[in-house]
Amino acid sequence: MRIVTLNPPFFPKYSRESRSPAVAKSGTLYYPMWLAYATGYLEKAGHDVTLIDAPGANLDTATVVERIKRINPGLVILDTSTPSIYSDVEIGVLLKKEIPSLFVMLVGVHVSALPKETLELSDQIDAVAFGEYDATVVEVAEKLSTQKRDDESLKSITGLAFRSRDNSIVKNEARPFIQNLDDIPMVSSVYKKHLDISPYFYGHSKFPIIVIVTGRGCPFKCTYCVLPQTMQGHQYRKRSVQSIVDEFRYIRDNFLNIKEIMIEDDTLTADKTRCREFSQALIDAKLTSIPWSANSRADVDYETMRLMKKAGCRLFCVGFESGDQQILDNIQKGTNIDRIRSFVKDAKKAGILIHGCFMVGNRGETRETLEKTLRFAKELSPDTAQFFPIMAYPGTSDFKFFREKGWIVSNDFRKWLTDDGLHSSVVSNPDLKYEELVAYCDRARKEFYMNPKFLLSKSWQALTHPSEAKRLLKGGRTLMKYIFSPSIKNGSGNDCNGKNP
Prior knowledge:
This protein is α/β, with parallel strands linked by helices.
């Protein structure tokens, strides 16, 4: 069957795959990674698939629609996110208008949280695949390619919600998670076939970069984290070590200019024994020439870090979130302030850089705890840092908590972003309005990056480690466009009690 997998147009350099979808001030642009994995799985099943990443290729809606008309697929699969959902649905409607026989299906974290509500936005959307959708979209493609569309056949597909012939909405049972992740083709091979990799950039990583996962799901239960709560669950399902070694080798042999591999597992270091096994396997296979980075918790022991560094690990991306222990406990982070300090000290000793993530507006946040977090960020002094206002997404424990409190100030999903597509918030507690949270993040970012000590250290880093200079210049150039400009301009922002259109 001829299929298009589409990351639809929205803002330029908009990252749907980010855990907090937005236009990043660092210039970061994510790969459409989950869509690419599904593309590979569909191709393995024998389908003719075209992956189009509109934000990555800087394609507008008219260009995308015209291109898909020329392909004339029977099925189009659109990725979605909370802030872009109305636009995503509109593009699906446009495609249906141009190709009336087209089966339009949506995927992603937003539709996984709100499958029926999403289908209610337009009767031109045929279905959504909720949860981990690789196998669901393959089964839909098989049904559509072997027989006429039939409600009874669609009712047999787990993980699917669809519009029946009588226009009612049917939600099937959830699909079990894929246990054998080695069965899914390497995502890097999908990039090689379908994408120009040059636009993709992580502000904390060397450039050009390839992004993969070695496992899905996260065993931790942070209240805010959307991917485990909506799509991939809390069981950490892992690829075999050999499959990871094979993919590193494939990347080395097929992307000759790649400077880094980013492992985007929610928490690679959740299984420290496997981290050591994986690291030793890379060393034994002599595959340490390409540096790699990973998402980590602030609880890795020094000996594990030392072996990971030997295997090529360059950087940990760590969610520190807050400098206040009570807030960390409130959001079920499961980390400890003193342990965080020793972790950062050990990482620096091991020679592993840290990208620190801080999120404000969490349960229990006050103006005092905001300042505590900024002081903590400066004390830890990671290589790079980002400051986010809380963005409570549908399907998360946080969204339910803040909505029950009456602290979600808008029901319009567009308001999860500023007018420029930057991170905003829709959470205002009685003491801290969302505008204050966004303004605090602007100030914290400025104080962190414009600190003379930090600027001097970055200059020295660029001089003594020339391989870091390219990402420092690229990220710094983009950041400087925003550092002195407020995210929320006068006259823009969320309207309290806003309604969905």
